[in-house]
Automatic annotation (TrEMBL):
It comes from Trichonephila clavata (Joro spider). One of its GO terms (molecular function) is transferase activity. SUPFAM superfamilies: GroES-like, NAD(P)-binding Rossmann-fold domains. Residues 8-166 form the Enoyl reductase (ER) domain. Keywords: Transferase. This is Fatty acid synthase. It comes from the Eukaryota. InterPro entries: ER (IPR020843), GroES-like_sf (IPR011032), NAD(P)-bd_dom_sf (IPR036291), Polyketide_Synthase (IPR050444). The lineage of its organism: Eukaryota, Metazoa, Ecdysozoa, Arthropoda, Chelicerata. PANTHER family: POLYKETIDE SYNTHASE 37, POLYKETIDE SYNTHASE 44-RELATED. The keyword Transferase applies.
Length: 168
């Protein structure tokens, strides 16, 4: 018999994520506008290693037993609060772009709503693959934010309202 401790790591939690959900999923789950307890960050007991990850509906506690394969090291330049916002959006984008979309190095990709969590994660993944990225924003403030955060995107940030007007 395998002891629970052998297949899990014990983590004292520092922060938890709040994942927004759409209307259809909200109706099926019978919940409000967000799912709590999916994402977390904290320190691995015994080693003190900073980790983030996801644990379905278990991350609302002060500590959890987590599967190591669902935990990721937190970079030194991130706070644990920042790290708690990363797992679900980056895994969603990785699944969409790499697994389902089979995105290859150097390809072009259009990412809508570039300043949202999913948009920023998708841009980051696509930049890591040297892709040509086009993204949409809703206003000039968001365009400036993306230009500052991702200087390579200059002149490839499209105004979603201007695109709509072209279709009239």
């Amino acid at each position: 018999m395998v002891a629970l401790r052998e297949i899990h790591i014990f983590i004292t939690l520092t922060a938890r994520g709040c994942f927004p959900i759409g209307r259809s999923l909200r109706q099926r789950l019978g919940q409000g506008n967000a799912v709590l307890g999916l994402e977390f960050s904290g320190r691995e007991d015994g080693t003190g290693k900073r980790v983030c990850g996801f644990a379905a509906a278990r991350a609302m506690a002060t500590s959890i037993l987590a599967y190591p394969e669902f935990c990721f090291d937190v970079p030194d330049n991130w706070t644990l609060e920042e790290a708690a916002t990363v797992p679900i959006v980056y895994l969603t984008c990785y699944y969409a772009l790499i697994i389902r979309g089979k995105l290859q190095k150097g390809e072009s990709v259009l990412i809508h709503s570039g300043t949202g969590g999913i948009g920023i994660a998708a841009i980051t993944i696509a930049l890591s693959m040297d892709c040509e990225i086009f993204t949409t924003v809703g206003n000039d403030e968001k365009r400036k934010y993306l230009n500052k955060k991702f200087p390579k995107l200059k002149m490839k940030i499209l105004d979603v309202h201007a695109i709509y007007l072209l279709n009239l």
